[in-house]
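Quick one:
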Amino acid sequence: MTARFTGQAVLVTGAGSGVGRAVALAFAAEGASVAAAGRTAASLDETVALIRKEGGSAAAITADVTRSEDVGTMVRRVVELFGGLDVAVNNAGVFRGGAPIADLPEEDWRTLLDTNVTGVLLSLQAEVARMREQPTGGAIVNIASNLGAHSRIPGVAGYIATKAAVSALTRAAALDHIADGVRINAVSPGPADTAMSLLPGETDADRAHRMKGASPLGRISSTAEVAAAVLYLASRDAASVVGSDLVVDGGASA
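Output:
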């Protein structure tokens, strides 16, 4: 494997578990210094320990992306630790579902908006503000979902609306800031090997059986496969890719 990100400073939000942790590990494996950000210090410390165990460079930053003060401090901390900000992955998100839109609790709706949409907006603002001042610019990848702009299912309208917003926000921000030297794209995963893809009471084996019929590929994606898509969009290999939304869902929304 080539070390595509040697010498680069990478910020990953929601890096304490799941896709965020896989993305952080993948960047570190390719030479980046990784700032693992999120709300829970213990899980971030686990991510950092995994990276350091493999000889990588990483630090944990506790931050709530729904708070502009936290987000500003998060970006400044990355610069203090690693000297700049070359790549940012806005992965922090929440899921609320299980009821039709008429029965969606207002509290769930506001939680979805605050984290999945406002959190991405605030992160973009702070990241772009730093990157456009750098001679080398930067790359940003937002994590959306195949549920939203690409497909819909009953019972999760709030989540779908917020992830569709991430896709649209990504494209609009990409046009706003490519002239500043900042490339912005999105990855839209389908069900991946995380707790979020498990139905209530479902085991990993149950999920595997369900996905044989639910996905054209016949299985869920691994978190490493999602991370690979993120790294591609953040790399120089994707230098002319601007405002894309790369779907990684085994063909479910094809």
